[in-house]
C-alpha cells in the first residue's frame, strides 16, 4: 500500500493545521512539501549543533551534498529493485523547436501526458543521505582505522501524505562509518545509545525498536524479515500524532558489506568494507519538539533550552 493510501486520522490533520496556522510550516499545494519558517529552522539548527557536539570525538570528515546525484551512481545501488515506488528521477526537455511546439500544444490542451516528451537527465533525487558518499570512496582502500563521515543533505521519497512528519523532501544528518565489521557495528551501537540519550535529554518520550526499510513487493517481504531477524536496523520512535503508531525520528543501520561490494571499497586487509550509519530526521525531530513542548521555544522547559543552547 502506498503511504498516500493509508488513512490519516483527525490528529494528523489537526497538527498539520496547527503548524500551518502558526507559520512554522508553509504549504506548497503538494502533499508533503512545505516551506519552513525562520523559527522552525532555528530549532533544526540548534539540534544540529547539539548533534555536532555529541559527535565531536569522532573527528569525522564533514561532507555536504546537494539533493541530486548521478544516475550512474543510483544504478550502482539496488534502490530501483528494492524501493522503486519511492524514487525520484529528474527529467528535462531535450528536443528541437518542432518538438517544443508540440509539447506546448499538449500543455495548452491540458494533456496530462505531456511529461512523456521529457527525457531522463544524468541525475536522480537522493533517496538516502549516505548514497552520494559511496562513489567518492569507490575503488579505495580504507586506512587501518576506517573512516567516519559527517553528512547532511535533502532526501526525496515519493510518499505524499497529510501527516506533517511524512514529508516528500526532508533533511537527514548522518554519521557514517566505513571499516571492518567490528568498526561498523560498534559505530551503530554507540550512536544508538547516544541518540536515545540525546532525545531523552530534550524531554522526548522515545523508544528504541527493531525496524525494517520499506522494501517493495514479494521479494521485499523477505528482505524485511531478514533485516529484522538480523537486527540490522533500529529506529528511535516517539509519539507525534499517534500514540499507537509513533513516528521514527532517528534510525541506526548496519549495511554489512553491501556498499563495500557495490562500490569496491576495501578495508586495509583487502576485504569488502562494512558500513553503518545513524540518521537524524531533522524535520521530524523539530516536529516532535514542537508537539511535546509547544510551538513557542522560548517557553520550553529550561533543561531543553539549555541543551539546545537556546537564546
Structure in a nutshell:
With 311 residues, the chain is an alpha+beta fold. It is 35% helix and 23% strand. The longest helix is centred in the middle third of the chain and has 21 residues, at 181-201.
Q: Strand-residue fraction?
A: 15-25%
Query: How helix-rich are the residues, as a percent range?
Result: 25-40%
Low-confidence stretches: 1-5
CATH class of the largest domain: Alpha Beta
Q: Descriptors for this entry?
A:
311 residues, 23% strand, 3-stranded antiparallel beta sheet, 7-stranded mixed beta sheet, 10 helices, alpha+beta, BirA Bifunctional Protein, domain 2, 2 domains, disordered N terminus
Notes on the protein architecture:
- The protein has 10 helices and 12 strands.
- With 311 residues, the protein is α+β, with helices and mostly antiparallel strands.
- The chain folds into 2 domains: 255 residues, BirA Bifunctional Protein, domain 2, CATH 3.30.930; 37 residues, no CATH class.
- The strands form 3 sheets. The protein has a 7-stranded mixed sheet with strand order 3-7-8-12-11-10-9. It has a 3-stranded antiparallel sheet with strand order 4-6-5. Strands 1-2 form a two-stranded antiparallel ribbon.
- A hairpin with a 6-residue loop joins strand 1 and strand 2.
- The radius of gyration is 21 Å and the shape is globular.
- The N and C termini lie far apart (44 Å).
- The N terminus is likely disordered.
